[in-house]
Amino acid sequence: MEKINKDSRISLSIDLTWEENGIKHVENYFARPHMWLDADTLPDNLYKWLPGKEVGEVFEFAYGAGELFSPYSSKNIIPIKWISEEEKKTFKVGRFYRIEALMGREGKNSIKKPLFRCIEKRDDLFFADFNHPLSEIKCTLTAKVMKIAQQPEVQFGTGGMCFDWISDIGNGIGMQGKFKQIDTDFYSANSFEVEDTEEGGIFYEKNSSIINVDVVLKNKISEVLENMIDDGSKILDIMGRTSPYLKNNPDITIIGLNKEISSIDKKISSINNKNIVQDPRLPYYEDQFDFVICSFCFEYLPRPQEFVNEVNRILKPSGSFITIFTNRYFKPKSILLWSELNDFERLGYLQDNYKRTNFKNIATYTSRGYLRALSDPEAVIDRQSAPLFLIKGTK
Predict the structure, then answer these.
(1) Do residues 228 and 248 lie in contact, with contact meaning Cβ atoms separated by under 8 Å?
(2) What is the rounded distance in angstroms from the CA atom of residue 67 to the CA atom of residue 89?
(3) Helix or strand or coil: residue 296?
(4) Domain locations in the chain?
(5) Nearest CA among 210, 144, 217 for reference residue 372
(6) Longest distance between any two alpha carbons in the chain, whole Å
(7) Second label for 266, Cα 20 to 30 Å away, from 120, 126, 256, 282?
(8) Which class does domain 202-394 fall in?
């Protein structure tokens, strides 16, 4: 059995787990460090553990607050004066913004952090928090060795480019949480307006799950759902965008405007083409379904809370509501809020909708870093597979 040495290129499946405000979060990240070039950008104790290990071996360690990511510092909270009345409407409490949003201010170039969070607004200024979202959170890291390969062309002492894996893993995670129990402003004026209000067009002609999802992401969705859903479970599939990924044989009901749903090769009990974008009421009895799954369509709902209330009504006691999305979507049909949010902030928006409807046992799962097959036509443009974002809650 091959063992890791200083010239190995390895593949690691990394799970980062933490809990915040009663919600459990799991980030799955696929890393491919080279032991000499860049593996030392992984956590130090993981880097020291790797030499001599074989495929299948697992590392696990619980990190205290500020040990894995930069520790919290009050110096990273900076008061910033408004430069216009219009700007006061732009920044929302609890939301994240890129440093470029501070263009034109003296001293902006001295700030080395790429993102900040608006945590308080006053008449003359606001406070920007540049701390990492997980700077005060304990988390557990698990890493499984998936593959070991030797790269004779990149050997110890030959030079090369280093990749900062821990910074890439930490990019975005934690944004779904609140800042110190303060509600995030997702509900400002025009948040739920859409750019294109026409009912027709390509958006309704093709199955968006085919448009948005590469093979690697499809397989990941299938794997995750297979571990959640049993044969015979009664499922309501919103817009028919989950059924193609179900490996087992649940009892599926479909509602929504997707015109290709009739071609899905699954056991379908019934299909209702009702426009839930215009009217979120669901024409089903109370306590009817084991699962309601909303894949690649929550971003198009202009009345989300009414929809989530309906989902809660039709679920059986202890039934589950699952929402899935990726970083690809059809922008002209999505609500304006969705385009303003970072991917992980979108999870925060969904969490807020779930909590407002009293869903319990809320948990999120994200998966990033996997590579498309070279046979994928889009691999020439972007080798990265589309990321998976999932949230689940029980009635």
Answers:
(1) no
(2) 36
(3) coil
(4) 8-68+138-169, 74-129, 202-394
(5) 217
(6) 68
(7) 282
(8) alpha beta
